[in-house]
Specification:
about 180 residues
Length: about 180
């Protein structure tokens, strides 16, 4: 994972914290809560991670790499999977508010000012994802532009926002079908 090698116990702390950050946010989950929920001494936390900023960075790197693995598996699957089916899988993977992308999406809004390095991790993932989306869209229609890939990503993120809204009523499949039928 990006030359990141962590001891097993540190990975457990990262996994627990990914959950905490996902559901409670980067600013409301402090080091005290992390060490309490992870059942480790604060000194061990700082020995592994050095600072909260570096820790958040590590959590996002781990999450990003796990998500990239899933995206690559979808993109490289050959067993009768059309580009349309791959795009659907990418869309559903990324619009799941309980899924892996949500933490990176959340980081864009919550870390830009406080933790700029972590913000950059999320932004770089978005750029990588747009390229993956573009590589699938171009298979559907040869005159696809990079703007179409951006639009697809904006559709993913708009769907997430819609799902998080007070009513949360959005038919993810219908939104996707509207986009794909326009291609």
């Amino acid at each position: 994972m990006s030359n990141l090698v962590l001891p097993t116990r540190a990975i457990q702390v990262v996994n627990k914290s990914i959950y905490l950050f996902h559901y409670f946010g980067f600013h409301t989950v402090g080091v005290d809560r992390i060490v309490k929920e992870s059942k480790i001494p604060k000194a061990t936390f700082y020995n592994y991670f050095h600072s909260k900023e570096r820790f958040i960075e590590i959590c996002l790197i781990v999450q990003k790499e796990r998500l990239k693995e899933k995206v690559v598996l979808i993109a490289e699957s050959h067993q009768g999977t059309s580009a349309t089916d791959k795009l659907k899988k990418l869309y559903l993977l990324h619009t799941d508010v309980d899924g892996m992308y949500y933490l990176l999406f959340k980081a864009i809004f919550e870390t830009k000012l406080s933790y700029p390095k972590t913000y950059q991790i999320a932004v770089r993932y978005r750029t990588w994802l747009m390229n993956e989306i573009y590589s699938q869209l171009i298979k559907l229609k040869t005159d696809t532009t990079f703007q179409d890939a951006k639009l697809f990503l904006y559709m993913i993120e708009g769907t997430i926002i819609q799902l998080l809204s007070s009513d949360g009523a959005v038919d993810r499949e219908k939104v996707l079908d509207c986009f794909l039928n326009s291609k």
